[in-house]
Amino acid sequence: MNCEEYRQAIAADPSFDGGAGHLSECAACQAYRNDMLELERTISRALTLDVPELNLPELPDIDSSNVVALPKRRLSPPVWMAMAATVVLAAFVGFRMMGAGTEYDSLGEELLAHIDHEPYGLRVSDEAVSDAQLERVVPAQVARLDHSAGLITYAQSCVVNGREVPHLVIQGERGPVTILLMPEEKVSGPESVTGESVKGVILPVGNGSIAIFGEREEALERIERKVLDSVTWST
Amino acid sequence: MQSTNTAILRRQRFDQYVGVFHQDMYRYAAWLSRDKAIAEDVVQEALLRAWKSLDALREDASAKQWLLTIVRRENARYFERKRLETVDIDNLTASQAALLAVEEDRELDDMRQAIYELDDEYREPLVLQVLMGYSTNEIAEQMGLKQGAVLTRLHRARAKLKDKVTQQ
Question: Which chain A residues have a beta carbon less than 8 Å from that of B55?
Answer without folding.
Answer: 67, 70-71
